[in-house]
Amino acid sequence: MLASEVNRENLSKMIRTFYAMILKDKTINPYFIMALGNDLESQAWQKHYQILEDFWLMLMTGEKVYTRDAYSPHEELPQMYQETFERWLELFNEAVHLYYTPKLAKKFYKRAEVLSKKFMQWLDIV
Predict the structure, then answer these.
(1) Around Cβ 123, how many Cβ atoms within 10 Å?
(2) For the domain 8-122, what is the CATH superfamily, name and number?
(3) What is the Cα–Cα distance from 54 to 8, expressed in whole angstroms?
(4) How far is CA 117 from CA 31, 91, 124, in A?
(5) Are 16 and 40 in contact, with CB atoms under 8 Å apart?
(6) 36: helix, coil or strand?
(7) Domain ranges of the chain
(8) Beta carbons of 11 and 53 less than 8 angstroms apart
(9) pLDDT for 14-66, tens place per residue?
(10) Which letter does DSSP use for residue 76 in this model?
(11) What span, in angstroms and rounded, lies between the C-alpha atoms of 11 and 54?
(12) Is 3 helix (H, G, I), strand (E, B) or coil?
């Protein structure tokens, strides 16, 4: 059954599914493998999951659990392109639709789309 509200449990499942999809995707997996490795059970990935759970909980529920800067950790990554972000959005859209009602999945996607545009502006891609 698809969730009609966001909580840490369903968000955790969605995030893990999303990153498993990413690691199978040749377009964007090099960025994540370079930063975190290819073992989704590693300590680096577990820490990343926790950060992302906090981030998305804040965005989707207003819960004040994320207190970091979302942009600076991405400074060390190699050049990204608009296609990189487009593919990230496609996979994100697939993942949220696996776990959330269409209305909530659309809300997630709209927030991800705004984030993607902000990241591209910040990285001088657009």
Answers:
(1) 17
(2) Globins (1.10.490.10)
(3) 8
(4) 18, 16, 10
(5) yes
(6) helix
(7) 8-122
(8) yes
(9) 999 999 999 999 999 999 999 999 999 999 999 999 999 999 999 999 999 88
(10) T
(11) 10
(12) strand
Tokens representing residue 67 in the block:
């207190």
Q: What is the pLDDT of residue 118?
A: 87
Contacts 24+ apart (CB under 8 A), 76-85: 76/35, 77/31, 77/34, 77/35, 78/30, 78/31, 78/34, 80/31, 80/123, 80/125, 81/125, 82/120, 82/125, 82/126, 83/27, 84/27, 84/28, 84/31, 85/116, 85/119, 85/120, 85/125
Two tokens at 75? Answer: 């400074």
DSSP SS3 for 100: strand
Contact in structure between 4 and 101 (CB atoms under 8 Å): yes
Distance CA 121, CA 126 (A): 6
CB 106 within 8 A of CB 68: no
What's the confidence (pLDDT) of residue 107?
A: 98
Could you tell me which of 89, 101, 95, 115 has the C-alpha nearest to residue 18? Answer: 95
Contacts of 104 (CB under 8 A, 6+ apart): 3, 4, 5, 6, 96
